Amino acid sequence: MSNKYFEFKRFIVWHDECAMKVGTDGVLLGAWANGGKRILDIGTGSGLIALFMAQRYDDAEITAIDIDDGAYRQAVRNVGNTEYADRINVVKASIQDFCKAYGEGNGNGMKFDSIVCNPPFFSRSLASPDAQRSLARHTTAITFSELLKCSASLLEDDGECSFVIPESAKGEFDNEAIFAGLYPSRICLLKTVKTKSVSRCLLAYKKHVVKQIEESCECINGNLNGRSEWYSNLTKDFYIK
Fold first, then answer.
1. Is the pLDDT of residue 138 over 90?
2. Start-end of H helices in 57-203
3. pTM of the full predicted structure?
4. CA-to-CA separations, 199 to 123, 170, 219, in angstroms, rounded
5. Which is nearest to 19 in space by CA: 51, 45, 38, 56?
């Protein structure tokens, strides 16, 4: 995307200072994840997902963290220009350090009803020569295991954490979730079009086994390559057209 910003109905997201631009994955997660009164956005980047959650849950207090300087500045700028500025706190920190300071067993314990994350996922591919983009896209700064253990430590007992990942990483991600004490509650498998294979997954986990996992398989694009009915309904409160 060549534009320096993306305009939604109720806010504008600039992404010229951060590696990960506004994209479908972030939009999907921000529009799909369940929220709560206290929400944590891990690796917020431009602040996109935090802003989506703030619009959807108007009584939520949101903490958005990122380790990258440019992403932190970008998120502060984007959040500050919206009606949600008083409900989103942008923090420059790694999830590991944040978890050490506020996770389970710590005297300063902080728990969240909802945790959302569009994580780095290219754990076995060559790193990008762009250091900032590599930090955002690869598991060099954090592994799936660390991410899920930190999420479990910061999650309320009845809370839910939600992620968007490539389908190729689902098996590894599910295994690490079990080791972290997290169990699937909702699964949405996604295809770009009906005739293609599943390319990405929206995954939600809780700290206890659920009686019935909510499962679906959806398409992002319709027959004429426009948005599918499912995706249009999911995002109708955000896209201008």
1. no
2. 69-80, 95-102, 131-137, 144-154, 170-179
3. 0.91
4. 17, 10, 10
5. 45
